[in-house]
Amino acid sequence: MDWLEITLNTRHDEIDPLCERLESLGVSGIVINDEAAVTDFLEKGRKYWDYVDEEVMDRVRGVCSLQFYLEDSESGLAELERIRSALGGPELGVRHVRDEDWENNWREYYKPIETGEKLVIIPEWEKAPEYGTRVSLRLDPGLIFGTGSHATTRMCLEELEKYRAHTVLDLGCGSGILAIASLLLGAEKAYGCDIDEKAPDVVRANGELNSLYQDRLAVYAGDILSDERLRTELSKRSYDLILANIVADVIIQLAAFAADRLAPDGVFICSGIIEGRQTEVLSALRKSGLDILSSRSLSDWYCYTARLKR
């Protein structure tokens, strides 16, 4: 189906009244684009990230607008004129879009990625060419972090392939890429958790793409820093491999938990540590009784692999 994307530029203090006015006119699915709201959201959620890509901020810088969609048809155009007349005054921007513009445009930038010596990450919608002896990991990240292209994920994937593991825990699992990779490389069981409530469904779907089902892959939604029931559930067992591709502040708070849940010969791989935060993370790891086995960096991001002191 074709659609009309309607844009109404406004001010921050006019957003709520305009939304109420549009809703009273029968408009639904209103999208709010507001630099002030994005900035406030980022500040309140600072414990979950150290870094926001400048490209993301460029998209919202100076922007304050409302968007909604109507069918690109005679009835849709008539509805647009009714709304335009009822609002009076404000100029409405109109752009023609198609369903596939939303669904597929981002996919053209996501291609197969070879990582380390053993894996190749293949988008679910791509044909799978031959990659020699590499293990293929099929993935559809959906609207969630974890495609294998980011420096932090690549370093984790390259590190985890060095270690044999029976049981794996992925803290902040996102799309499930790290947990699934560990299973494809020989682990028997992987557990994961993420604050995004969509994570369990996304991870399970990606597991099925790789013929991995719930008997080998268990995922929970929740904040392990504050959810005691989740911590209790994940503390029922020890792990040969614990992964945390998150941010420095969260890794610092999780260091003691990871050290407590590692099997005697287990390793903790953590990444998502932006340049400038590595000293704090290293200190937290060592205070938790962990020795650093390896340290690596890529594009101003750091990754550490650690194990219990002997």
Which characteristics define this entry?
Alpha-Beta Plaits; 310 residues; 2 domains; Rossmann fold; 30% strand; single chain; alpha/beta; 11 helices
Chart the SSEs and their pairings.
Elements: E1 2-9, H1 15-24, E2 31-34, H2 35-44, H3 54-60, E3 64-71, H4 74-87, E4 92-98, H5 99-104, E5 113-115, E6 119-123, E7 135-139, H6 151-160, E8 167-171, H7 177-184, E9 189-194, H8 199-209, E10 217-221, H9 228-234, E11 239-245, H10 248-261, E12 262-274, H11 278-287, E13 290-298, E14 301-308
Parallel strand pairs: 6-7, 8-9, 8-11, 9-10, 11-12
Antiparallel strand pairs: 1-3, 1-4, 2-3, 5-6, 12-14, 13-14
Helix pairs in contact: 10-11
Low-confidence stretches: none
Total number of domains? 2
Strand content: 25-35%
Going by CATH, the homologous superfamily of the largest domain would be Vaccinia Virus protein VP39
Q: Whole-Å distance between the termini?
A: 63 Å
What's the pLDDT, averaged over the residues?
A: 88
Q: Assembly state here?
A: single chain
User: Could you give the order of strands across the largest sheet?
Assistant: 10-9-8-11-12-14-13
**How many strand units?**
14
CATH-defined topology of the largest domain = Rossmann fold
Radius of gyration over all CA atoms, rounded: 23 Å
Percent helix among the residues? 25-40%
CATH architecture of the largest domain: 3-Layer(aba) Sandwich
Continuous helix count: 11
The 3D shape can be described as: elongated
Described by strand count, sense and barrel closure, the largest sheet is:
7 strands, mixed
- Going by helix content, strand content and strand pairing, the class is alpha/beta
CATH class of the largest domain: Alpha Beta
Please trace the helix and strand order, writing H or E for each element. EHEHHEHEHEEEHEHEHEHEHEHEE
